[in-house]
Design a protein that fits this description.
By secondary structure, this protein is mostly helical. It has 4 helices and no strands.
Length: about 55
């Protein structure tokens, strides 16, 4: 979509001291689970849909 989400997310994550992209931080906080656990339980499509929302 070329809106700059990934670029801004990387910069924000760096400022927060994280190597994860901001959407990963948001989904982990929302789901109260790690990306690895979410992927195992809910699958790739669930995570892709979250990425689109962010």
């Amino acid at each position: 979509m070329a809106s700059g989400k990934s670029t801004v997310g990387r910069l924000l994550a760096r400022q927060l001291g994280s190597s994860s992209s901001i959407w990963m931080i948001i989904i982990e906080a929302n789901q109260k689970k790690s990306i690895k656990d979410i992927f195992s339980e809910k699958g790739e499509i669930f995570l892709e849909n979250w990425n689109i929302k962010c």
